[in-house]
Amino acid sequence: MSELIQTGTQSGVLTIRMNRPEKKNAITRDMYRAMADALEAARNDDAVRAVLLCGGSGAFTAGNDIKDFIAIAEGGTRHGEVHDFLRAIATFSKPLVAAVDGLAIGIGTTILMHCDLAYCSPDSIFRTPFLDLGITPEAGSTLIAPKLMGDQRAFALLVLGDTFDAATAR
């Protein structure tokens, strides 16, 4: 397990913590692999009854590590780790809960859409910068967001890139 992803189980709850505070928990390929592996192990472990995803104080995650993804594109390699993680959260059959304090940007916001429940501090901020990056929304977010928040809010989030806080998300 990557030290950038810390895991531990207590009272039947597996905690998966992103631990890269100097980069606001920007997610790398290795972090995706570690989280995918942890979710797959939890899926098959009867002692794990639920999973908690979290970051540190001030940042759930700032999104994908752009330098890491540029290196992938330049190297012509596939994003297998990312797809494995997204498949794992999209098909996870046990309760999946997120604890958010601070930033949940890009994939951070998308991850929350796949969770059964997200607890957010009043300081939490959500944004999907797809427009700024010139990319399409990821991981089924165009399907899930309208169901969770309605068409207009989903459009503002995914297409316009509007930022919103925990009070608005509520």
From TrEMBL:
<dbReference type="InterPro" id="IPR001753">
    <property type="entry name" value="Enoyl-CoA_hydra/iso"/>
</dbReference>
<keyword id="KW-0413">Isomerase</keyword>
<protein>
    <submittedName>
        <fullName>Enoyl-CoA hydratase</fullName>
    </submittedName>
</protein>
<keyword id="KW-0576">Peroxisome</keyword>
<dbReference type="Pfam" id="PF00378">
    <property type="entry name" value="ECH_1"/>
</dbReference>
<dbReference type="GO" id="GO:0004165">
    <property type="term" value="F:delta(3)-delta(2)-enoyl-CoA isomerase activity"/>
</dbReference>
<dbReference type="InterPro" id="IPR029045">
    <property type="entry name" value="ClpP/crotonase-like_dom_sf"/>
</dbReference>
<dbReference type="InterPro" id="IPR051053">
    <property type="entry name" value="ECH/Chromodomain_protein"/>
</dbReference>
